[in-house]
Batch of 2 targets.
Target 1
Amino acid sequence: MIIAIDGPAAAGKGTLARQLAEHLNLAYLDTGLIYRAVGKKVIGAGGMPEDAKTSEAAAHALSSDDLAADGLRTDEVAAAASKVSAVPGVRAALLDFQRDFAACPPEGKTGAVLDGRDIGTVVCPGADHKLFVTASIDVRAQRRVKELQDRGLEAIYARVFEDMEERDARDQQRTSSPLEPARDAHTLDTTDLNVEQVFKAALEFIRSSKA
Ligand code: DC
């Protein structure tokens, strides 16, 4: 079973993907982390994430150490990830890894949950279940502020909101695999839902749409 979960930042897709993977005994791949690793590799070496050559080279040179690097969850790295992810050659370089994970999930699992921006549209267009998880930008910014503060980091709402708006626009407007719901995706708006309610709604959708 392949479950594709797409949506903008801080909509709740990572938490949901993890819960579904655990509950259904599936492998989980956070594809945003891969783009973050590429972004961090580029800025860590003093490069420009918008530069196609530099970003493509980083994507091709990506190692498991890069995916385990510290500091992948910062907003600075998120912005760099969003920029490298607009480079078609970067997306192409990372595609096989994601598809292989879905086709042959690790640890003998019989399926996988992948979350990102283009899973239902490009990476796994044949996924058994597709969810597009979204929420108002105001609520997403509030969630991100809380998440950063819980990690002991300073976070100013207005700044987080602005960064998120900029990242949404970049992710939605790029020409290569933009963020958009797949035609056959089920949209789950989490604006007024808590974590448990999101999980329950997603599970109901999966059960009701079982082939
Ligand atoms: O899900 P995230 O916030 O960790 O993702 C960081 C950035 O990576 C996001 O702004 C766009 C990019 N990304 C992408 O283009 N395609 C994916 N499948 C996952 C992430």
Note: The chain is about 55% helix and 10% strand.
Target 2
Amino acid sequence: MTAEIIDGKAIAAALRADIARRVATLKSRHGVTPGLAVVLVGENAASEVYVRNKGRQTLEAGMTSFEHRLPATASEADVLAIVARLNADPKVHGILVQLPLPPHIHTEVVLRAIDPDKDVDGFHPINVGKLSIGEPCLAPCTPTGCVMLAKTVQPKLAGLEAVVIGRSTIVGKPVAQLLLREDCTVTIAHSRTRDLASVVRRADLVIAAVGRPEIVRGTWIKPGSIVIDVGINRIASVDGKPRLVGDVAYDEALVVARAITPVPGGVGPMTIACLLQNTLQAAAGVNRAG
Ligand code: NDP
């Protein structure tokens, strides 16, 4: 058996096209153009690429893109002043502060300063709390993308044994919360989990968010399961050129799983698409119940 390859690139493109249609409707019916503001502090090559892609895809979706760049020497007060301005700006519906911030700036302080109704990354404690008590909220983008990809294979996930490897606040914990909402039976594994292989072996759905190249072996995968690989790891290949691999040994899992996401081209493209979806949701006021 060879697994279905879940084409995150195509699924993200279809989601962006659907968002663009909904943005056009919001504009024509309510005169609202969703606006996404990105704040970038300092110079980080990976962040630059990500911010450029976000800006381009925001415009392609028919939204307004705002970019605020500050030097690495900017103070925490400088960043907080921009966040306060964006919180008050009615043209801005989503605010994203690109991480990592320089070490002298407290990430938690900045993230908590963002208006929770504009927190399109879903990292504000209000949104984290709402996610855990099952209220409507802005949920983190990569986890939302993971669940969407799994649902392209099996629209109803209820009752599945889901194993999430990783417990970060960015991926592991929120994806586990989202899977609970889908009525999965969820196990969260981490670096202190005993016998990770046997935990993964009972999963109908595996979400690997570890950051360790190919840690999940094919022999760990239950035949017929769905495998969502969040990991992005740069390794040297035989010819010495760097290449990207996930947290799952792809070739091994491919012959056991029912469906699997490739790296790259799986979860990665979904993150910005889900960010645009959150921005649209924020602009439509879906989340503003209190
Ligand atoms: P973190 O480093 O914050 O978390 C990694 C998690 O993996 C931790 O909970 C850690 O456990 C666990 N872990 C580490 N080693 C092991 C091990 N040997 N066995 C079991 N668990 C282990 O990473 P992130 O969650 O931020 O990211 C995870 C991966 O996903 C990275 O490769 C990252 O690049 C990628 N990523 C991809 C995104 C995308 O858009 N595609 C977006 C975000 C991340 P413990 O808590 O005990 O330390």
Note: The radius of gyration is 19 Å.
